[in-house]
């Protein structure tokens, strides 16, 4: 990956204490609970559920652009390290589609996410601010 993040550090620190593999992995997973590391994908899911339908994406994007008035945020976009596209997001989007196709299922949240991504990637407001989907944007759907 691109850096030593919180969950990686937790796994390594737990492992350095001599704990077994399962304890180390539990430590890393537990670190994902907080909003600063792993909780971001939960915020994305909540946002997609609130949008409710791909047809509501334009109205949502308008609210995001009026951020100071509406306080609506676009979750799962932008990254401290990746200032352009996050390659992991593209991989996870494909994984979402592949898993759903293999299961013969359709997920409304994925449809909303793809519509929102398409809208944001073609909007100067988001392009100027270098807001592209990050790993959290699709990981919650999986």
Would you kindly provide a brief summary of this structure?
The chain has nine helices and no strands. It is mostly helical and 142 residues long.
Provide structural commentary.
This protein is mainly α. The protein has two domains: 1-38; 40-139, Cytochrome P450-Terp, domain 2 (Cytochrome p450-Terp, domain 2), CATH 1.10.230.10. Helix content is 62%, strand content 0%. The protein is built from nine helices and no strands. It has helices spanning 6-16, 21-31, 40-51, 57-65, 67-70, 87-103, 108-121, 124-128, 135-139. α1 packs antiparallel against α2. The longest helix is centred in the C-terminal third of the chain and has 17 residues, at 87-103. The model has no long low-confidence stretch (mean pLDDT 90).
Strand and helix map with partners:
Blueprint: H1 6-16, H2 21-31, H3 40-51, H4 57-65, H5 67-70, H6 87-103, H7 108-121, H8 124-128, H9 135-139
Provide the descriptors you would attach to this structure in a database record.
142 residues; mainly alpha; Cytochrome p450-Terp, domain 2; 2 domains; globular
Evaluate the radius of gyration. 17 Å
Show unreliable segments: none
**Strand and helix order:** HHHHHHHHH
CATH superfamily of the largest domain: Cytochrome P450-Terp, domain 2
């Amino acid at each position: 990956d691109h850096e030593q993040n919180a969950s990686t550090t937790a796994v390594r620190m737990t492992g350095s204490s001599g704990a077994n593999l399962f304890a180390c992995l539990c430590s890393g997973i537990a670190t994902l609970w907080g909003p600063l590391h792993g909780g971001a994908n939960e915020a994305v899911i909540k946002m997609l559920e609130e949008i409710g339908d791909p047809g509501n994406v334009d109205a949502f994007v308008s609210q995001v652009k009026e951020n100071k008035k509406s306080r609506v945020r676009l979750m799962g976009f932008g990254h401290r390290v990746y200032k352009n596209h996050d390659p992991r997001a593209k991989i996870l989007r494909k994984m979402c589609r592949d898993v759903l196709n293999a299961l013969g299922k359709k997920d409304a949240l994925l449809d909303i996410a793809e519509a929102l991504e398409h809208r944001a990637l073609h909007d100067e407001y988001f392009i100027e601010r270098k807001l592209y989907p990050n790993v959290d944007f699709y990981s919650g759907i999986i």
